[in-house]
Amino acid sequence: MARVFVYGTLKRGQPNYKHMINTAKGLAKFQGRGRTVEKYPLVIAGKYNIPYMLNIPGTGHHVAGEIYTVDDQMLQFLDEFEGCPDAYQRTLMRIEVVEWEAKDGADAARGAADGVLECFVYSTATYPPEWVGLPYYDNYDSLGKHGLSYVLRESR
């Protein structure tokens, strides 16, 4: 099992969460909420209003999201879904646990020195330079005040 931190459309209540609970794609178990230890720019970009965490450590905000444990099948699905390694790259990042909901709290304690876990995150270093000038967010919501609703793949 691997730990994955999701900050965009795969979070609960967001347009692609359905994939996280589709066991035909693999197993994903919600563990809790967290935020990046380092600051990153989280932008909404492109004609489909897709959230991207730009891999520019030290710039932007501590990005909020959810921590999951996933099996190999789900990790492979997520790699394909996220267009890894072209659109996004899966990298290890330090995530601060904000709220732990998993029943096995001991697991978090073993892996979380000072409440920090290493999780895979889909961020991007392959983005158009103008994206750096877009507004930065700390918590993505497809229906947020930004007015940039995500366009589902089946609607493109």
TrEMBL record:
Question: Active-site positions, per UniProt?
Answer: E82
Q: EC number(s) on record?
A: 4.3.2.8
Coiled-coil stretches noted in the UniProt entry, renumbered to this chain: none
Q: Which GO terms describe its biological process?
A: modified amino acid catabolic process
Which keywords has UniProt assigned to this entry?
Lyase, Transferase
- Write down a Pfam family by its short name: GGACT
Domain Gamma-glutamylcyclotransferase AIG2-like, by residue range, is 4-122
**Reactions that this protein is recorded to catalyse:** epsilon-(gamma-L-glutamyl)-L-lysine = 5-oxo-L-proline + L-lysine
Query: What is the protein name for this chain?
Result: Gamma-glutamylaminecyclotransferase
- Which species is the source of this protein? Acanthisitta chloris (rifleman)
